[in-house]
Design brief:
It holds the Pfam family Pterin_4a. Its EC number is 4.2.1.96. Keywords: Lyase. One of its GO terms (biological process) is tetrahydrobiopterin biosynthetic process. By secondary structure, the protein is α+β, with helices and mostly antiparallel strands. It has one domain (about 5-115): Transcriptional coactivator/pterin dehydratase (Gyrase A, domain 2). It has helices at about 5-20, 40-55, 85-95, 115; strands spanning about 25, 30-35, 60-65, 70-75, 100-105, 110. Strands 1, 2, 3, 4, 5 and 6 form a six-stranded antiparallel beta sheet that branches. It is globular and about 40 Å long. The two termini are about 15 Å apart.
């Protein structure tokens, strides 16, 4: 089983992800990001690539797609919060989205809020 990130790991790993648009999910020890694509086909194409990546990592996102918008939530259910698996998947998804999607930064709270009270 994967462990939740401790306070030091959170501070070290979450700041770079916040810069790329990840935010703290409301009411959960999870991170969320919303991507905007030119159209539905582009969003679906990204989701197909992301699904293959997630399957390889054996770690899957929770997501919601409406036309050209995709909201991705990452949390490791086994440990009840953010783990290194979420960090790795977030980085992989960021690389896939580069140049094909715009980040909607008007969601959630700053990701660094997850360093305040969520670590073990």
């Amino acid at each position: 089983m994967t462990d939740k990130l401790d306070a030091e790991e959170r501070k070290a790993l979450l700041s770079a992800l916040e810069d790329s648009g990840w935010r703290a999910a409301e009411g959960a020890d999870a991170m969320v990001k919303r991507l905007l694509f030119p159209d539905f086909s582009a969003a679906w194409g990204f989701m197909s690539q992301a699904a293959l990546c997630a399957e390889k990592m054996e770690h899957h996102p929770d997501w919601r797609n409406v036309y050209n918008k995709l909201e991705i939530t990452l949390s490791t259910h086994d440990c009840g919060g953010v783990s290194v698996l979420d960090i790795e998947l977030a980085r992989a998804l960021d690389a896939l989205a580069e140049g094909v999607a715009e980040v909607d930064r008007d969601i959630g709270r700053p990701l660094m809020r997850l360093t305040e009270s969520r670590a073990d």
